[in-house]
Each structure stands twice: as structure tokens, then as C-alpha cells.
């Protein structure tokens, strides 16, 4: 097993490198980089200087006083070259990529182009919101879907299975953003009830509350965002659990165990459960990553939550490359490690699985 873990860890290196190469190459063909955005702001007479950081802030500030006529006569070539040097675009793409990867290997993700804060500090600042959505949504989906899927498999074809299947199909068909808007309209002061807060992760007076009141306030605020994030994951996971258990129940070893006189409870939880849960566990990384990163953009925007989803979207719009590539590197590495943890969980669920004999 140790050899398998070492091989998987070594495989992470070329996989991560390939992800970074592809994304870095694609970015080279996307118009409107950070320098072009600054120049557009200057030539349009807008204030493009307030959010910039580092040495670029000083350079842009020197020209700010002349912005009243710089747009009419065109910006000096020396200034444009100085901007490119400050952002590192005076170097060839290959050199920039190698320098970036060398910094990332040392977990030095640099500083945001347009915020006076390092990428690591920026991610840590936004992390609590995304952890809240990802962790609670995934936990809630599994706590509901697995018992419900098992119950549907045991009572396959019954009235309970029929009407719960209808609920699951409707939940699966509703887009997450539409369900989030519906929750806001119904329960957050829209046209009907004002039970839950409209935005934010905590109340303004959160720090003055006691521990129990803080916990209740936190749960009160995350109820609607978590519910909106869980809806599609819950539906798919329920159907996956049911179908997995149905496949196992119909296999010969279950018929044999029942013929030997074993009670259904022992057959189900002693034999079927362990085998059927493998496919459910295999979907955990994809579910967690999709809720943690993919679905958080829309949910965070609708509920006015300042998390990693909005951070990534804003970084892509403003071409904040350190934030884009730094978060891509960190989250890709996290996803690959979660995949390895999933394989190890297979062994915990079913010790008969032997990854040591596999060729990676």
C-alpha cells in the first residue's frame, strides 16, 4: 500500500504540471490582460489606480495627475513598457511560466495585481464562506441521500418509492440558481415571508453574542445558501445510492445468503452495504469539488456571500493572473489529493480491494 501511495503522489506532479501548462497557454490567447485594462481606464479618463498594489501602484499614480490630457494625446510608450515590466510581461511566456511554477513549488503565490494583499491571505479571507457551503452541503446531501436511497432500494416499486422518485426528479430538474432565487422570494423578505436573512454569513452584532447565540446566528444565515447548494447533489446521490443497492441486492451472493437462513438485516448491512457503498464513495470527490468550487459562484452571488467562487470570477474578469493561477494550482492539488484519499477510503470500506497489485 505504501508503494501505491508513493506512486499516486508522484503522479500528481505531471498531472498538476499539465493543468497549469494548458491554462497558461490558453490565457496567452485571451485579449484584455491587466496592462490593457489599465490603459483602457487611463485613456477613458477613469480612475484605475485605487485598487492597484505594489510597485505598479506607484507607476500608475505618477501618471494619474496627467490623466486629464493623456487620453487625448495617447499614453507614452515608456509608460506602457514600464507597466509591462512591473507586471512581468516584458519577459517571454516560457520564462514567465517557469518563474511562476518555481514560486508555486515553494508555495509563493505572489500578490494580487489589483488588491494590496497576497494571494494566500486573500484566499484565507474568503475560505470560510466556501468551506461553509461545501462542507455543510456535502454532509447534508450524504445524510439525506444515503438513507433515502437505501429505503427506496428496499421498497423498490412501492408507493413510497414512486412519490419520492417524483420529488427527486423535480429536485434534479430545478437549476440551483433558480431554487436559490425561489428561496429568497419565499423566505428572505421577498413577496411572502421574512424568516431568514437576505445576505451575509453572520449578523453585524455577531461578535457581541454568546457562543450559543453565535452558533444559532451562523446556522440561521447559512440555512438558505446550503439548502440551495444541496438540492441538485441530493437528487443525483439519492438515485445513485438506490441503483447501486438494487444491483447488489439482485446478485447471486445475496440469494445464497438468504437461502442459508441469514436474516435480511444481516444480509443487507453485513454484505450488501459494503459493496454498494463503493460507487457512492467514489462520487465524493466530484461532489465535494463541484459544490465547493463550481456551484459556489452563483450561490455566493445570489446570497451576497464573499467567498472563493466570487473571488475566482472577479479575478477572471479583471485578469488578476496571480489570483487566477494561484487558486488554480492550490485547488487542483487539493482535488488530486482528495482523489487519493478516496482510494484509501475504498480499502477502509472493503479490505478486499488491493491497489498494490494495480499498475498506476
SSE inventory with pairings:
Layout lengths: L1 H27 L5 H10 L10 H11 L2 H7 L3 H11 L5 H13 L13 H36 L4 H15 L2 H12 L23 H39 L2 H8 L4 H19 L1 H11 L1 H7 L5 H11 L2 H29 L11
Helix pairs in contact: 1-16, 3-5, 7-10, 7-13, 7-16, 8-10, 9-10, 10-12, 12-16, 14-15, 15-16
Membrane topology: Multi-pass membrane protein
Main location: membrane
Keywords: Cell membrane, Membrane, Transmembrane, Transmembrane helix, Transport
- Kindly name the structural category: mainly alpha
Bulk shape: globular
Q: Quick one: CATH superfamily of one domain?
A: MetI-like
- State the order of secondary-structure elements, H for helix, E for strand: HHHHHHHHHHHHHHHH
End-to-end Cα distance: 12 Å
Q: Remind me, CATH topology of one domain?
A: MetI-like fold
Question: Can you walk me through this structure?
Answer:
By secondary structure, the chain is mostly helical. The protein has a domain at 119-319: MetI-like fold. Helices cover 74% and strands 0% of the residues. It is built from 16 helices and no strands. Helix 7 (119-154) packs across helix 13 (284-294) and helix 7 packs parallel to helix 16. The longest helix is centred in the middle third of the chain and has 39 residues, at 211-249. It is globular and about 90 Å long. The two termini are 12 Å apart. The relative contact order is 0.13. Mean pLDDT is 77; it is low at 45-73.
